[in-house]
Amino acid sequence: MKRTLDVVVPCYNEADCVDLLYKELEKVLDPIEYLDWTLILVDDGSRDSTMFHIKNLAKEHGNERVKYISFSRNFGKESAIYAGLSYASSDYVVLMDADLQHPPALLKDMLNALVNEDYDVCGARRVSREGEPLIRSGLSNLFYKLFNKVTAIELIPGGSDFRMMKNSVVKAMLDMQERGRFTKGMMSWVGFKTKWIEYKNVQRAAGVTKWSARGLMHYAIDGFFAFATTPLRAVIWLGFLIDFVTFISAIIFAVRELSNNGPRTGYGTIVILIAFFGGTILLILGIIGEYLARIYLEVKRRPIFIARETNIKSK
Ligand code: UDP
Ligand code: MG
After folding, report:
1. pTM over 0.90
2. For ligand 1, is residue 43 a contact (CB within 6 Å)?
3. Which of 49, 227, 257, 276 meets the CB 3.0–4.6 Å disulfide criterion with 15?
């Protein structure tokens, strides 16, 4: 039986990469006889000749083989991934970068894991970060550690967006209607049986990275706050702590004042009152944070459950 695969690729100023990418995909995917594949290119508002190259590819290989969507401006990679997934219609979908940093050679193993090994998702995990600035990998490690500590989901260190999934997983990803999208976190949230295969870091085939230090920082911060509500709640503990310390000091202060007969300054009373109100305000803010965290999670309208399989026909 023939299977179908959509290769979803976000492209932002990748004029030098799209043709190379197509050739590499052809080399790997054409020999698989049971497979029909489609390339879905999402042009994320490129300012160079990316669209010219994409249209040429579509002309040359047909609109069934090369599909494209072009954004009115740069909306960012996460939006491009969402668009690509919502246009995908095949049995399997793989997310991939345009610059060949995600080796197409892995596609065969990924497909195998899904078709023959009953996995729902197969992700690629980068095991070496050679050729990357030390500060970038250091910060990235820190991010993973913090993220995994603070949130309920787990990110696999080095796990990239390079993932192949069954269409049931794609549906689950699209059922998450939240605006601030963090694909890595969402993929972990939806669950499913996932296999990881490893690969070594590869340099870009052409062009330059689209991530500035600032952009990456924003990405990390967005990702963190999309899943962590701890910062909203943490303040409650600080309030408790301050009130507790104030209470103890008030007792010590009262005992000391009462046991000596010197003149009273009132200094201690003022300090204790200020600390008490400070602590209490934080505590109340923390309680408001609890509600806010709940509202935040509610407005995302994430699905309440995601079924992997069932024998009940849906109504
Ligand atoms: N990309 C995108 N929109 C953006 C930035 C990047 O669609 O605003 C795409 C880019 O074309 C590439 C992928 O996201 O296909 C990864 O970007 P890049 O290779 O620059 O990131 P890096 O590999 O350096 O992390
Ligand atoms: Mg890249």
Report:
1. no
2. no
3. 49
